[in-house]
Structures
1.
Amino acid sequence: MLQPEVLEDTIPATADTSSQSIVPDQHDFQYTLADSGDTVDSRDVLNLHCLCRRVSLVMTRPDASSTLPWSPHSDCVYPYHSTSRDFLQNRSDEKWWIRPSLAEEEEDEMAAKTTKGGGSSDLSTTDGSKKRYLAGTCTCRSCRLGCGFEIQTWAFVPRSNIFVVARQRGRGDHDRRILFPLDFSSLPGGGEDMQRGRQGGGQENNENRNESVLQQAANPTTAVLKTYNSQAGVFREFCPTCGATVFWHNEERPDVIDVSAGLADLCLPPPKGLSVGDENHSGSASAAARAEDWLDWWTERVSFFEHAAAGRTGTGATLGAKIAADLQDGLGAWGRERRGESV
């Protein structure tokens, strides 16, 4: 197995960011899968990173592995307070996190929304297998306290489609960006401590660079993520440097992960065949902030909308409830407009 030397930002720095987009050229690098050594084009993944870029991830498109996990239904689609527990257990094993491609949705928006929570597990598409993942908003108390804001945005992604990025220094300017499968028990290290450990040269330093992933993960000063239990059986990960929210997952569904949608890189590389300035490039303008080529935003409900005022009283509770209500109204109107319905 390939071993990482240091986790670094996966987007090459530019000399003058004021005059050009920080968008990696597809020929600048390819990712290498740590397990197999196979390469992945940088334009075939969605880059995710926190503000300080200590946490650097990529997301791949839905594939056969995306259909393997089981998960109960999400409150984002079916309100827990008013839906039977038996139904929420998803005994039909619906792969609700896999959604139609953007092209499919635009071609037949109404059909795509007919089955609530829908998303066919059939990965065949008419536009290059660009299926997406369901994404939504949450106003529950634990998310609010965890992120420090009234609204948390989540994308529901199988763990098999999430990779931790590590940069491995090569000769000259030829660096390799290694993709490690997301395994919460053995995360690659990252941050300044590992960068300092890389300096100094010599055989001893080279040996240090090749320490195992497990050894790196065991060191809290170099671990790429920190985890805490927000309640029994529930885990949240965040960047230990800048504090960015990264993941939510629990013991009931360990293989479908909530990924903080705010980590998505706003400077998405243009699809193959388009230039950065192309007006059809979904990586520019407002579509980039929502990563709509990758995420299908649920507009019929805000998750745990009923909990927006939970745990507080007075002005805070009133404003929190109003923000959640306004968000739900706005999302609903946006969804109806996109479907061609009267707003």
2.
Amino acid sequence: MRKTTILTSTVAVLATLALGTGPAGAAPTGAAGTRAGDVAAATPGCTTFRFWRGEGRTEGEICDGHATGWVRDDKADGRCPFTRFYSLWDDQTVDGPQVGPKGAVRYFTVYPPRGQVFARYASIEWRSC
């Protein structure tokens, strides 16, 4: 399977085209420091994500109206990484669980707000912990 590294904004455009929903807006802002991840089609209608930054890493899949995956803390720095998901039709975000200390891994299943679906992109962020 060939994986292509692309920017989060490109993923948003591809999701819009795949869903046939028309313009879904620009890529989310506030994801400063987020590196582009590998995104590849998984099951038809699903999208895998893989993101990393100095604080940690997250991998998973957005499929069937929810997201599943894991997040890992890679650095003993007082920062706990978490995965952020974006609603397709508005500016709402849903955060997955944060993880820490260094070496800790947490598996998750995250659902969008009622009546919403996740856009096919995510980001890795951090909070002080």
3.
Amino acid sequence: MVFRHSMDFRPFLSPAFFTNTGSTMKRFDTALAALCVSVVFLFGCGPSAKKDSAAKPSGAAPATNADRDSGSKPAGGPGGGAPAAGDQVGQLIEKLKDASPAVRAEAAYQLGELGEAAKPAIESLVALAADDDAQVRAAAARAVLKIRPGREVTRPIVKKLLADSDEAVRMRFLHTLADLGKEVVPNLIEALKDDELAKYACIVLAEIGPEAADAAPALIERLKSEKRPEVRQQLIMALGAVESPKSVPDLIAIVEDKTNESRIPAAFALGRLGPSAKEAAAALGKGMDDADPVLKMVCAWASVKVNPDDQASKEKAIGLLVEGLSSDNPLAQKAAMRALADLRPKAPGALPAIKRILEGANREVAAEALEILASLGAPAGEQLTETLQKPEL
């Protein structure tokens, strides 16, 4: 799965950009992974999934005769008739362990069709949401949505799975949850009400993006009462990602408040909103004159995004970003590089600064600079060719 943020200046999502305090936060991807297992138990809290949301698995490798013999047909009940619901659930749970992904996916689908009668299968289905087969994961997650077991049933299961799983397994949970898209948004809105889960719900809502726009009112409401800086930062990032103009006034107020620890993510969120946040141009313009070097870079980038037709402001912003390439602050320098790579401006003054970066000893920063060179096109071609000949890069 490719993170949707990756095309939208995702490096600014690094927690290091969010605060001036230097406090540590969990890595972004780790937090994303943790959310999956934290929110799975909320599947039962929202409205019922639509009938077509649990579409029968398709596209997997066709089941072989051996697959079918292994149990694609439920065994009959007494006298050869249809099995009792309990017997059928037990048989389907066994099929969830089958070696064939086609059989596992079909079994998960059938359990979902049984609805609440399939509650005994919840532990197996939650575990299957981390299966190494994408179709099996999707079928298992949708089955849980249809069974609607409730938090009290799945909370201990999910906590145990989280404790026993490695990062790869947790990431597969994330992929499953994010791929559900809009249909899981009501459950994530419910998660915003939970102090323990609110931060993680924000991260997945941000990953879903504009399809999660229905969550904007709940995000704004939570932002008004939330006191924890880390959670406020994630709320702000989610507001930018779901692209709701309703959040613009609140985000402007944060950028203008010099005592607020969330000014950087608020400026970034406004930039993600683009021209729909044009009224933020003045606040972002003031931010470009701020003493915080990282905030200056983010506001410069955001001002171009929200008001691309203002040439005077654009020239000032690009000038600041070029200056930022030579900043002594590594975060400001990286922010400037990412901003220029995203904006792709005609900024010949950037080339000398980039050349100096490439000649430095920091390979990570040099790699970032290479991306800018590639984005600047023909003017940087000679420098890019020369740099790529260096074995260390």
